[in-house]
Amino acid sequence: MTQLPPNPASSMAHTPPTPPKTMRPWRLSTRLLRGVTAVVIGCLIIVSLLTVAFTKFEITERLDDSLQEVAERLQFAVLVLNQQGSGHDIAHLSNITPTSLAYQITDAQGQVLLRSPNAPELAFVLPHDAGFYMQPHFRVYVTPAAQKNRFIMVAEPRVHRSQATHHAILIAVLPILGAIPCIWLLVMWQVRRSLKPLVHLQHEIRERGSGNLNPVPDLALPHELATIQTAVNLLLERLHKALAAERAFAANAAHELRNPIAALLAQTQMLRSTLPAETPADTPGTTARHRVDTMISQIQRLSRITEKLLQLSRAVAGTGFQRQPFDMLEVLNTIADELDPPHGAAPQRLLVETEPYTRLVVLGDMDATGILLRNLLENALRHSPDGSCVRVAVTLDTLMKTDAGSEPSFSAQLTLENDAPPLPDATLSALTDPFVRGGSQAEGSGLGLAIARTISTQMHIPMQIYSPIPNQKTGFMVRLFFQIDRYESHEEAQPISGPGYKKHT
């Protein structure tokens, strides 16, 4: 059987897609600073190279001019030499150094008639053509003398020429290179100064969100940033109107839905009161009274679900974005009294321990906090076994150590515990999603923890969930951390412990 070649289209179809590349975060100030500094330094390097070439050219030209000038001044030596006669004379000069100029006076055959002490015995250049010559150790200038068959050669050591050129280049280039740190500092100062309005705009926008939807104030921004400020203010205004509309819809829906459900429940209860009582001959579950009881229970369940849906709508609409000081203990005690009256005939199931504190003022929204605590307490009471207690404790923890003389910063830790079987990790991680239940047979909608998580996120209240309770094998625990603005306590606080302590302290 002939094997067919693989189809490239099918192989490409099964190739996993390449994940998109993530852009690394970068700073505008850093990019501007690096870009401007690189451009300036590049320009300075080009200027330095041009300066080096120009300086080298000028130094060479000036030194060559000096060789020509010395050769012209040596014309008198040729006259003296003609009067004294030919010979291999050496001029006696003082202060001769390796970098001093050397000269020779030669005849047409290249014989040296007169030379300086640092000049070689043989002629610098042969034949004697006028001009400049570059020798291994000298740069030589040759010119015919005024006398016939006489030539003057002036030579400069190349070491001296190199030293002079290097010194001139350093003098010209070092100030340019030394200015680079100063230029970098000035560029950094100017970039930061120019970006200050952008930094102020960044801080203002960062503070927006949560409960602050106020427009960005006038920051005297440049034209390029003023358009951003205008767009942000328009967006904040639209967001504020949208949130206001959402809250108004939730409030109106709550009012419009509660009334018909309450009226339906009242009419059903009145209908039940008019029905005759059941007789022993009636079949269980078939009488009109039993059916009306079923209707009443379903209407009550509908009322609870509607209430939870409205609370979830209010939470999603941003009911926890407000930032106002209020007493958290007052809200907690009020809800605890509503859910478990302290003077009821049934055993108390809700035990609240607030230690010696009488007031704990926190920043947030009082209504949203009430919805948050009510959902957590109702959830704990509903899913606790009969006869068990739900324990609520409020303690204060120091957030950070401050300097001497300043007031410490505290966090109010609210811990809620109830008896319940432990939950699997997968169920516990998804328990704050809407309509997710933990497997309990108790009646519920699966929205309580979702509402609590939404409100705690909006109010920046960390919420931790544990199952089982740490260091125990069973139980369910929720822990909240409120930012304390101020607190008050009893002057003489008595320790609270044991099962018989007061319900509300």
UniProtKB/TrEMBL annotation:
It is found in: Membrane. One of its GO terms (cellular component) is plasma membrane. The chain crosses the membrane at residues 32-54, 168-189. This is histidine kinase. It comes from the Bacteria. Its EC number is 2.7.13.3. It is an enzyme of class 2 (transferase). It catalyses: ATP + protein L-histidine = ADP + protein N-phospho-L-histidine. Gene3D superfamilies: 1.10.287.130, Histidine kinase-like ATPase, C-terminal domain. Keywords: Kinase, Membrane, Phosphoprotein, Transferase, Transmembrane, Transmembrane helix, Two-component regulatory system. Residues 252-486 form the Histidine kinase domain. Pfam families: HATPase_c, HisKA. It comes from Acetobacter cibinongensis. The keyword Heme does not apply. InterPro entries: HAMP_dom, HATPase_C_sf, HATPase_dom, His_kinase_dom, HisK_dim/P_dom, HisK_dim/P_sf, TCS_sensor_his_kinase. Residues 1-24 are annotated as: Disordered. Residues 192-244 form the HAMP domain. GO terms for molecular function: phosphorelay sensor kinase activity. PANTHER family: SENSOR HISTIDINE KINASE TRCS (PTHR45436:SF5), SENSOR HISTIDINE KINASE YKOH (PTHR45436). CDD domains: HisKA. SUPFAM superfamilies: ATPase domain of HSP90 chaperone/DNA topoisomerase II/histidine kinase, Homodimeric domain of signal transducing histidine kinase. Its main location: membrane.
